[in-house]
Design brief:
With 324 residues, the protein is an alpha/beta fold. It has ten helices and 13 strands. Strands 2-1-3-4-5-10 form a six-stranded parallel sheet, sandwiched between helices. Strands 11-8-13 form a three-stranded mixed sheet. Strands 6-9 form a two-stranded parallel sheet. The longest helix is centred in the first third of the chain and has 22 residues. The chain starts with 11 loop residues before the first strand and ends in an 8-residue tail after the last helix. It binds guanosine-5'-diphosphate-beta-L-fucopyranose (GFB).
Length: 324
Amino acid sequence: MADIGFPLEGKRVWVAGHRGMVGSAVVRRLAHEDCTVLTAGRDSVDLRNQASVDRWMEENRPDAVVLAAAKVGGILANDRLPADFLYDNLMIEANIIHAAWRVGVGKLLFLGSTCIYPKMAPQPIPEDSLLTGPLEPTNEWYAIAKIAGIKLCQAYRKQHGSDFISAMPTNLYGPGDNFDLGSSHVLPALMRKIHDAKLSGAPAVEVWGSGTPRREFLHVDDLADALVHLLKTYSGHSHVNVGTGRDVTILELAEMLAEVVGYEGRFDFDRSKPDGTPRKVTDVSLLRSLGWEARTSLRDGVAGTYRWFLENQGESIRTLAMGV
Ligand code: GFB
């Protein structure tokens, strides 16, 4: 049984980014804890503005913050909007972390991404391979912003003794995902393309790149559970990987999605689109040693996400969204 160093009972927990896939999963998960969840809409705070964040923080005085607000997107969105991905994410995290220190927040959990690691990092990727080599060029802007977030948490811990920690989730999917084909990640994109092909009777679905890159996929409800676990039990300098430790090729993912959707056509590969990093699977030994493991199998998670997609299609097909 892990040591509960930061019990949530009676605490006020701000989930920054509560409308995004991750933030909304954290809000759902926190409903099972005896705490008060705070959220802030865009009308009440502009996360890219320090004065606005300071004001909100002073008025609301959270005991803990889950920093899930970010500008996110798939491989092409990252490549096409480098300024947005770097500026927005730097501003959001710097403003919230600084304001959290100023008002004396007791615990802050910053969320990054496994794209912080070098393109050619050892696989599975251990936490200490951060900053040991060049980044994958398609998402270096986002990665640099997220590395700065980790360093901010470590700097405030070192200089001010703030209990600010970071978690690095692997590629995520689940209810509330973005199904817009221009900005989404691979899993929701292929789910939607395969679904549309089934409905229209199309003989083939286009898969970007070669289909050979390997990725690890974590259900967002598993992530939310891990985050609450870390919030309550972890207080270290190092960021913590959050993943399953298992990966599949993009082609294997496409085949699994076709099975779940019930599509029997073929896949055509568009090699003019980038493959990105060849493999990304996390070493989850630190997280395991802290007493947490993922529970949802990819097959079950995909099936549940497809049910959600069928029930929420209109709402889910949206343009690139800030998780704010
Ligand atoms: O999920 P994804 O966009 O991002 O792409 P990354 C993963 C792999 O799937 C790439 C391929 O090799 C894509 O070329 N792929 C195949 C597709 N078909 C599609 C498709 O229709 N749509 C998309 N989007 N991909 C992102 C980073 O990298 O991962 C972010 O850019 C972030 O910064 C995120 O870290 C978790 O895994 O390559």
